[in-house]
């Protein structure tokens, strides 16, 4: 059963990533890590359309900046706006550490995510099919403690 699910996941994801370069794949999975770790506020729920809107808005902002115009495109829904802010913040954080991220490559990766979220939603009919696919792909369980907490070493010092 797990193998069939993996085959379905690959069949859904492959058309959206088959044209990406190695660097664009890395950006694709970087953004997916943000999506997988995103925690919606209080009563809001993140759905595939929010993922598509957030990816499209960040891609449009990057594409517009590439033409020399500074304009921030915003998604329509509040959950998508929050996700877009997290994606942008993560990209800026990675850039601040010295990693060179080309806007054109980032836009291509984001457009692939947008297309994947919309196509997966359309094919499955479920509101969170793409988010579930991403979680399976990255081996993330919803409600799981953040990876930072798990990575903190515990002291091996034993006190009486």
Walkthrough of the structure:
Helices cover about 65% and strands about 0% of the residues. It is mainly alpha-helical. The protein has one domain (about 1-140). The longest helix has 22 residues, at about 105-125. The chain starts with a helix and ends in a 9-residue tail after the last helix.
In whole angstroms, how far apart are the ends? Answer: 50 Å
Quantity of strands, as a count: 0
Outline the biggest β-sheet: none
Low-confidence stretches: 142-160
Strand residues, percent: under 5%
Provide tags for this entry:
0% strand; disordered C terminus; 160 residues; mainly alpha
Short description:
The chain has 160 residues and is mostly helical. The protein contains seven helices and no strands. 66% of the residues lie in helices and 0% in strands.
Task: Give the SSE layout.
Layout lengths: L1 H16 L4 H16 L10 H19 L11 H19 L6 H22 L4 H9 L9 H5 L9
Helix pairs in contact: 1-5, 2-5, 3-4, 3-5
């Amino acid at each position: 059963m797990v193998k069939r699910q993996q085959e379905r996941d690959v069949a859904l994801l492959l058309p959206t990533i088959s044209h990406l370069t190695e660097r664009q794949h890395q950006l694709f999975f970087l953004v997916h890590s943000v999506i997988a770790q995103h925690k919606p506020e209080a009563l809001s729920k993140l759905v595939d359309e929010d993922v598509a809107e957030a990816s499209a808005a960040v891609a449009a902002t990057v594409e517009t900046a590439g033409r020399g115009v500074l304009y921030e495109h915003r998604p329509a829904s509040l959950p998508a706006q929050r996700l877009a802010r997290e994606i942008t913040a993560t990209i800026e954080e990675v850039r601040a550490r010295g990693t060179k991220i080309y806007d054109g490559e980032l836009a291509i990766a984001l457009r692939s995510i947008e297309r994947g979220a919309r196509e997966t939603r359309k094919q499955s009919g479920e509101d969170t099919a793409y988010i579930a696919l991403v979680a399976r792909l990255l081996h993330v369980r919803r409600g799981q403690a953040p990876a930072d907490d798990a990575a903190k070493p515990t002291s091996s010092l034993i006190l009486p």
